[in-house]
Amino acid sequence: MLGVYIHVPFCLWRCNYCDFCSSIADGGRVEEYVSALVSSIGKYARKNLRADTAYLGGGTPSLLSGEQMKRILAAVNKTFDVSDAAEITAEANPGTVTPEKLRAYREAGVNRISFGIQSCKDNELYRLGRLHSFAEAEESVRTARLAGIKNVSADIMLGIPEQTTATLAETVERVAALGVDHISAYMLKIEEGTPFDCNSVRRAVADDDTVADMYLMTVEMLSQRGFMQYEISNFAKPGFESRHNLKYWNCEEYLGFGPSAHSYFGGKRFYFPDDISGFINSPCAEPETEDASPNRLEEYIMLGLRLCKGISLDRVTALGGNAERLLGAAKPYVGAGLAAVSGKRLSLTPKGFLVSNGIIARLLESVL
Q: pTM score, two decimals?
């Protein structure tokens, strides 16, 4: 079954590190956008498609009213015959939710919520440009539970300006203690054109070696607290892995709606341009098709090696690759503790994840 991604490109404030497609929320424009989404989703009606995950990302989807969330998910349910056991996720920023709103989201079908907590230190949140405090994050998690949302995820960031190994350890400890079921831990990346794209910020963040130590510490601390790593940046209690995001890494089909949303469907990859007004004005316009057809072997290796379970050598062979050459290229990384071979599977270790781009590029050279 399909995954459905819905982009909600509105925020109260654009964070200092963010380069996602977003703009400051305006009530009338948000309403126009919701109507455009419903129209765009409806293009797939009567195609006998089924979905078992939906994910509202952003931006800040928690700026939607309960009624707007209901309209969007009603369109998804009607169009894609969503299964009763589907995972329906909405991203949320602490401080933008209320008990009434979260109850309305739950009634609309949301059964998983992902809070962008980022840090337990308010000075670090301020440097990121976040509008919430950690106290508000704690309250938002409690509110979600009381609203009946049983699957709660939290994002944290590594390498924030002013962050130290000690303050990160405190963040990991306090976020895990909130009783969440899933934690995503992302290393800060300074994107071109963002407020963080300046020398003063680069001087304020930890160097590469320190961030590497932070990452390995986070992996260990979360493991000790029952959060098993299953992907480079993702950790979950048993049974709470993100089913939607696993579709991306397992090369399964998904459809995306909204500006900058990408799709993989019918053997093709396509996307909507990063143009909010254009999407509102022409929600049923054909999305842009990526120039080249996806190479299934390349994508399987690139995406599969993000997962702790790694890739199947039998699958590599079935897709036309030379598994022996791949193993030969991987041998130095296995010897260095950056990769592992178990049975007929090749995977990266946490240390390998830190340099995954280089390793994957070298492995691809051996089979393509």
A: 0.94
Two structure tokens written together for 42: 């409806």
Beta-carbon count within 10 A of 123 CB = 12
Count other Cβ atoms within 10 Å, centred on residue 278: 13
pLDDT per residue as tens digits for the range 250-287: 999 999 999 999 999 998 999 999 999 999 999 999 89
For residue 180, name the pLDDT band (cuts at 50, 70, 90).
very high
pLDDT bracket for residue 15 (50, 70, 90): confident
Residues 326 and 148: their CA atoms lie apart, in Å, by 47
Q: What is the DSSP string of 266-281?
A: TTEEEE--S-HHHHHH
Is the pLDDT at 353 greater than 70? The verdict is yes
Edge-to-edge strands, sheet with 228-231: 228-231, 234-236, 182-187, 151-158, 112-118, 87-92, 51-58, 2-8, 254-257, 262-265, 268-271, 288-289
Which numeric CATH code is attached to 296-367? 1.10.10.10
Q: Given the DSSP bridges, would you call strands 345-348 and 339-342 parallel, antiparallel or unpaired?
A: antiparallel
Classify burial at 275, counting beta carbons within 10 Å of its beta carbon; exposed 0-12, middle 13-18, buried 19 or more. middle
For 18, the 3-state DSSP assignment is coil
Structural domain spans, the chain: 2-248, 296-367
**2-248: CATH number:** 3.80.30.20
Same CATH topology for 2-248 and 296-367? no
Find all residues with CB under 8 Å of 63, minimum gap 6, and list them: 8, 10, 11, 12, 25, 30, 96
CA 162 – CA 124 distance, rounded (Å)? 6
Sorted by sequence, the CB contacts under 8 Å of residue 96 that are 6+ apart come out as 12, 60, 62, 63
